Amino acid sequence: MDYKIPRGTYDILPQQSYKWQKVIDAFRKIAAVCGYQEITTPVFEQASLFERSSGESSDVVKKEMYRFQDQKGREFALRPEGTAPVVRSYVENRLDLGGSNTKLFYIGPMFRYDRPQAGRYRQFYQYGIEFIGSDNPYFDAEVISILWNYLTGLGLRRLRLELNSVGCPQCSTAYDTALRNYFQPSLADLCPDCQLRFGQKPRRLLDCKVPSCKQIAAYAPSQLEYLDDACKVHFSAVQDNLGLMQIPFTINPRIVRGLDYYTNTAFEIVYEGLGAQNSLAGGGRYNGLIEQIGGKSIPAIGFAGGFERLLLALDEEEVELGAPGVPDVYVITLGEAAQKLVLPYLNALRGAGIYAEFDPDKASFKAQLKAADHSQARFALIVGEDEVAANQVTLKNLQSGEQQTLPLEPSDRIIQLLKA
RNA sequence: GUGGGUGUAGUUCAAUGGCAGAGCACCGGAUUGUGGUUCCGGGCGUUGUGGGUUCAACUCCCAUCACCCACCCCA
Question: A287 CB contacts (<8 Å, ≥6 apart)?
Fold first, then answer.
């Protein structure tokens, strides 16, 4: 083998495809019934779009972005996430001037230069929702409910929805100050990573896993105590709405979104039983992002989830996603005359929407019947010398073994039988 | 980016430094046109790759690549 697939990527092979189609179709369906329409953006964008929106200090931008220059020296990046491109498109196409809400969803590959691990790839596929246009807490609940209903609808049970509010930029900076005050005295005892976090993103100190840091962080103030009145009201309204929609959640004041643009509502869905990469999806409000990217000041909220982990979780929970398609009929011929007769027949069946399989390389009758059995086709359509002579075909039900003879010409009757 | 583990047939796994094997899967056959069960037959695979040690390496050593696990990050 001379060529190898790039590290951290994978092929979706035909035997796996139907599962992907199933989860993708289910997502499209639920998005549609909530009024969301699909948007597809390029897989690469100006690198600065992500630098500015995700935050220069975020790991995603700092060390995980695939960057390249094109022939004219322009700086591009393979998109590491979906929200910034959607917002870029929204602003660029002046959807912000319409004055009404915009409901979008996307599905596509994202790219991050991470060390590969179970549930973590360098090219991975995400589904996501972006609601743009209103700060009404109903929409927080709507967006979260889409995610929740999608995942539970697929059959997942061991899900946990964790909810938090990171507040508006004002309460957020107030909170950062409070955290710095809290950690200041123990600064020297923190791990090197945390010492960096102290300066850049103090709230990251809260989910450090080093035991000594954990201990120090144990009594740190909670974000929720530093929400201003408006943010408090919003947060509790979101909770009320979720309650009314009967979506269970737990408040986790320590969940922190990795990208800088989040405000107020932040949430994450974790699946118990996936190992380290157990976060199935996450999202939140980003009320300042549209303005930051050059549009009007318009509130918005969204989420993104990864299909790879979703499929792992479905596998873990032994959810059956159906099976690959099997032929309705397997066509068996014997002799040259039969083969000639059968080609127009095949075409007619397929034209009528019937999945018909045929392999002229299988010579013997036995081999063909074996192949028919192996294909799990429901029927075998047999055209041999006898049939040619008698101007008819034999239709054999492979489950029951019953067979009947029918006129040679493809008829509605046969099509009905095969479709049944 | 850091630490640990693994790498043998399509696949799951064997092989005290001494001839590279088995189950499953796959293909063919068991007299003329009837499948699933059964029986018989079918495998030289650069033992991930490249070096080294040795009379001899799947086995020991080094490097490299890939995957897995954890950290990290995040979906």
Answer: A135, A168, A263, A264, A299, A300
Q: How far is the CA of A415 from the C1' of B32 (A)?
A: 32
Distance in Å from B65's C1' to A4's CA comes to 10
Alpha carbon distance A288, A214 (integer Å): 32
ipTM of the complex: 0.84
Measured at the alpha carbon of residue A133, what is the angle toward residues A127 and A135, in degrees to the nearest 5? 100
Q: For chain A, give the percent of residues with pLDDT over 90.
A: 52
Is there a single domain that holds both residue A289 and residue A409?
no
pLDDT at A1 over 60: no
pLDDT of residue A232: 95
Across chain A, mean pLDDT equals 89
A82: nearest nucleotide, CA–C1' criterion: B75
Looking at the fold, whether A153 and A82 belong to one and the same domain comes out as yes
Question: Is A204 inside a domain boundary?
Answer: no
**Does A344 lie in the same domain as A254?**
no
Q: Pick the last residue of a domain from A270, A293, A316.
A: A316
